[in-house]
């Protein structure tokens, strides 16, 4: 088997500990083997733990399969990991086609996403089962897009008052017969979001935990005390913090802390935020970062099909029975503009907003887009940081967080140019 060598030099390499100026990264067969400052250190083709030697010192077979990239002084970071995404490029994961999965993965790869967790909407059981079956086929066929890390089922076990743009026809309480059948149908389910105050939700959380599935709190009317019980029963993540959940509320003249305050007070809880600058304006981005810190925050797009598309009319959910929306001002809205109806963000925009709107160091912004999501989803052993032995999922971007190159498993899948973006 011939060795595939990738060498990226003249980069500002973002490691878990620092930024290496004028750094070089080397990967062999999709795995990082060396990171160092400067241009040359040893012979990568013969020693996987050494740096990149000259072409003349490499065996003939390796020389033919070596790709060298000059980053031109741009940043080189770990690929962005989006753990909550519904669509993009004009497609939704609920469209019922393998093509939709593949086009969404390729669209988001052009914005720096190297791995994602496809997310469903509240739907009938049959629709969820179909989406799970399509996921399995699409994952096997996905060669040029962001990798799939498993499915996120968002709903249908939600509080009606906090449904947001979720279809009320399908919202219901957790039913063991239903969710056990769904989980038995596919091993691809990696996280499931639900309202923990619903009848049967605590048992649901325990069941998810027993199956190794991440239980998350979402679309909920819970108060602090109910969140504490939820955490005791397996819920560890707050889905799109602030969106479709309680803050401080009044009940019979008494004030109660809500899910937002619980997420701040419970140190063990992770949170994810839609950092598009619209769902959460800059002051709230700053507040979440100040209280929770980058190690407990995952940036998510929560994007629908209009991500990567021009403004105008679109559809939230499947084309068959989705909700008509309008995209303007960098967000999807209901036609009467009374509420948001989904995000159209891409991961580069999230990082850019955290740096330039929230004033977060680039290292922490990348951590929230790569390292923390990898840990939350249980893949930190191979993804989320630039370190020897990790997957060569890489993104090259400039000072304005404009993506120049996206690399997945050591292979370039996207390259930008002065005339606009292009796929490789």
Structure overview:
With 424 residues, the protein is of the alpha/beta class. The protein folds into 2 domains: 5-77 and 386-423, Urease, subunit C, domain 1 (Roll); 79-376, Metal-dependent hydrolases (TIM Barrel). It is built from 10 helices and 26 strands. Strands 1, 2, 3, 4, 5, 23, 24, 25 and 26 form a 9-stranded mixed beta sheet that branches. β17 (270-274), α8 (282-292) and β18 (297-300) form a beta-alpha-beta unit. It is globular and about 70 Å long. The model is unreliable at 44-57 (pLDDT under 50).
Task: Draw up the topology in text.
Blueprint: E1 5-14, E2 19-28, E3 31-37, H1 60-64, E4 66-70, E5 75-78, E6 80-85, E7 87-88, E8 91-92, H2 98-109, E9 113-118, H3 125-141, E10 147-148, E11 151-154, H4 176-185, E12 189-194, H5 201-210, E13 214-217, H6 224-232, E14 235-238, E15 249-251, E16 254-256, H7 259-265, E17 270-274, H8 282-292, E18 297-300, E19 312-316, E20 323-328, E21 331-333, E22 340-343, H9 347-356, H10 362-376, E23 394-397, E24 403-408, E25 411-417, E26 420-423
Parallel strand pairs: 1-4, 1-5, 6-9, 9-10, 11-12, 12-13, 13-14, 14-17, 17-18
Antiparallel strand pairs: 1-2, 2-3, 5-23, 7-8, 15-16, 19-20, 20-21, 21-22, 23-24, 24-25, 25-26
Helix pairs in contact: 2-3, 6-7, 9-10
- What is the count of structural domains? 2
* Name of the CATH homologous superfamily of the largest domain: Metal-dependent hydrolases
In total, the number of strands is 26
The shape, in one word, is: globular
